[in-house]
Amino acid sequence: MVDNQPLDRRPGSSTSGRTAADDAIVFEHVRKEYADGTVAVGDLSLAVRRHEILALVGPSGCGKSTTLRMTNRLVEPTSGRIVVEGTDVTREDRVRLRRSMGYVIQSVGLFPHRTVAQNVATVPGLVGWDRRRARARASELLELVGLDPDRYGKRYPHELSGGEQQRVGVARALATDPPVLLMDEPFGAVDPAGRRRLQEEFHRIQRELGTTVMLVTHDIDEAVRLGDRVAVFSRGGVVEQLDDPVAVLSRPATDAVSDLVGDGAPVRLLGITRVSREDATAGGPPAPDAPVVRVGDTLAAALEAVAEASTGAGGAEAGAGVGGRVAVLPSDAPADARADHPGVLGTLDAAGVLAALRRAVEPEPADRSDPAA
Ligand SMILES: Nc1ncnc2c1ncn2[C@@H]1O[C@H](COP(=O)(O)OP(=O)(O)O)[C@@H](O)[C@H]1O
Ligand SMILES: [Mg+2]
């Protein structure tokens, strides 16, 4: 256990200039002992910063759901204090509290006898919006989660796929634009490809709305993809490490974190680290038919393009080592831009991808402009 101290004093986390006012959810020495004596959470102190996604990840039974459910008082803490947006939750009316926070769970929990639109409009209705406004909001939210309101609004939940139901669950939770959203294995019931897509779309929506999110998952991939920070839990609600995803993957603080991260850390790092402008090397122009990557693409995508360059017609350079060179374009280059795009920033090869990865996992280099770094 390394993280039982207040966040601001944690070594290595960039907390300079932060104040408690930047925290949307604060746990102070929270304990939950169930009636049968199970200590689900022993002594948890933790803060979720405003507008961030904090992912709680850990093996089954380590206290993640209990932690989440104490936040909206579906579970009452035995002791300690939880403050959400400046309010001690035990002093707030439970029903009001629950309506002020979005809550998304794996089994979705849609109302089977209400249409999709009615499901999404539930909380707006409960908090007193008139029907027209609630309906308009439902359409807006369905649009936001990628479901055509005209097509889906009148359907019933059983007429949707699992992934579509999850989207409706997210839309419903966001209907009143709550400052805080609690999510418990929200994409668990979706197949892997659909899950990836949902994760990406959810990320975009969260950035757009600025919602503070506490996300519970047992899936380290989901945690590092979605979390701005990741809290790795072990049994009893013990925080083994609370850090940004790259640090969790590349510098696990304890054996429990290493076990969770497993052997897949390098591959996962490639999936969450992105091509930056500095990664493009000058030098000769790329071959006009070279594959392209954009600033902001994942290194995994870049590596794939490099591999393609090595086998694609004309892309390979004899003796250039593994793979070929790809052209690096700015993030806003048009979708059909090719390697001869006038805005091309340079090229990238396999060694460049590895250098980018190395740079990403290095703890805060003293001088970022040092070419040897
Ligand atoms: N209502 C309950 N009564 C007794 N024990 C419970 C109850 N809910 C959860 N637990 C126990 O608390 C521990 C933590 O559970 P939970 O928070 O659901 O873990 P996680 O979400 O990480 O899988 C587990 O040992 C679980 O069996
Ligand atoms: Mg759980």
From TrEMBL:
- Which residues belong to any copy of the ABC transporter domain? 25-260
In the UniProt record, does the keyword ATP-binding occur? yes
Q: Which domain of life is it from?
A: Bacteria
| PROSITE patterns linked to this entry | ABC_TRANSPORTER_1 (PS00211), ABC_TRANSPORTER_2 (PS50893)
Task: Give me the ranges of the annotated region Disordered.
Answer: 1-20
In this chain, composition skew of type Basic and acidic residues spans 1-11
- A single Gene Ontology molecular function, please? ATP binding
Question: What keywords tag this UniProt record?
Answer: ATP-binding, Nucleotide-binding, Transport
Q: Which InterPro entries does the record associate with it?
A: AAA+_ATPase, ABC_transporter-like_ATP-bd, ABC_transporter-like_CS, P-loop_NTPase
EC numbers on record: 7.6.2.9
Q: Which Pfam families match?
A: ABC_tran
Name the family the entry cites: Belongs to the ABC transporter superfamily.
Name of the protein in question:
ABC-type quaternary amine transporter
The lineage is: Bacteria, Bacillati, Actinomycetota, Actinomycetes, Micrococcales
